[in-house]
Amino acid sequence: MTTAPTAPTSPTAPASPAEPTTADATAPTALRLTPVAGRIGALVHDIRLGGDLPAGTVAALEAALYEHKVLFFRGQQHLDDAGQEAFARLLGQPVGHPTVPSADGRYIFELDATKGVRANNWHTDVTFVPSYPKASILRSLEVPPAGGSTVWANTAAAYRDLPAPLKTLAESLRAVHTNDYDYAARLALRPELADNAEVARLFRDVFVSTAFRTEHPVVRVHPVTGEKTLLLGAFAQRVQGVSGDDSKALIDLFQRYVERLENTVRWDWQVGDVAIWDNRATQHYAVADYGDEPRLVRRITLDGDLPVGVDGAPSRLLEPADPPRVPGLVPAEELEAAN
Ligand SMILES: O=C(O)CCC(=O)C(=O)O
Ligand SMILES: [Fe+2]
């Protein structure tokens, strides 16, 4: 059991760390955390998520998120879509998906396995646009009898694992990320789903209704922690200036460090669980090992910022030539105000 972060000690510090002083209600409150794996992931105890959390608790959650990369919470069945959004707003500005309509007319992105929506590939959310989300908040509504876990990887730890010459190489590379890829091959969907006309339509007419291409640095400097992270995953298509096979070999080389089991944490869901991840320092993979059983999760993402590489060069949109006014290209606050 570890506690982090603790309120700064001072003569006026409260006797109980759970009670912030009125003098500084925004000072981080101590949280009770249990690490779930050695390098990533912590379970947060004794907390009821919602839009009414004190500022000190929110500050502590943010600090814990940057340290542990993924936070898990059990027993949050009281949350509905509105409650999830109210809680999300304490951590940032909710943002819609650039192409997929929300499930509640607001910000909820639904992954319903019975509709063929399964994220069983390693990815960081929405990296095909420049300012992709900074964090995602996922709530479990239905779990299969067995299987259906999600695995996260720490992309800062993956960068640290690289031998020095590979660090230098990675820092010099930029990769093109796109939502327009051969989904049947890349998503490793079950063959019957890959042939499913409805799933194919969903992909072609909705997910890729606009094809985006964005160039990102392969090593992103985290804007809060300053850590160097590997920015790759399933949307990464090729490395700029490197031809097809060599591009793939390079992406695979670095992606292997992300997927090393030492850099991962695996979560077995119960209904009412919530997971929050730092989408600027992780990838994740939803394991599709539960056959036709139902599985339902709902996600809210928080607006992100423009990545920069170690040389300070920002990410940039390559396509489409006439950029639509969508999340990741226009600040979510601006989009919300226009609605
Ligand atoms: O289904 C899951 O557990 C995760 C799905 C996913 O990739 C996401 O919510 O971003
Ligand atoms: Fe995802």
UniProtKB/TrEMBL annotation:
Cross-referenced SUPFAM superfamilies: Clavaminate synthase-like
GO cellular component terms, A-Z: cytoplasm
GO molecular function: 2-oxoglutarate-dependent dioxygenase activity; metal ion binding
Pfam families: TauD
Cofactor needs: Fe(2+)
Chain ranges of the TauD/TfdA-like domain: 35-301
InterPro entries recorded: AtsK-like, TauD-like_sf, TauD/TfdA-like
Entry's EC annotation: 1.14.11.77
Annotated keywords: Dioxygenase, Iron, Metal-binding, Oxidoreductase
Tagged with keyword Metal-binding: yes
Keyword Iron: yes
Renumbered residue ranges of the record's region Disordered: 1-28, 314-339
Catalytic activity: a primary linear alkyl sulfate ester + 2-oxoglutarate + O2 = an aldehyde + sulfate + succinate + CO2 + H(+); 2-ethylhexyl sulfate + 2-oxoglutarate + O2 = 2-ethylhexanal + sulfate + succinate + CO2 + H(+)
Family per record: Belongs to the TfdA dioxygenase family.
The protein's name in its UniProt record: Alpha-ketoglutarate-dependent sulfate ester dioxygenase
Species for this entry: Kitasatospora xanthocidica
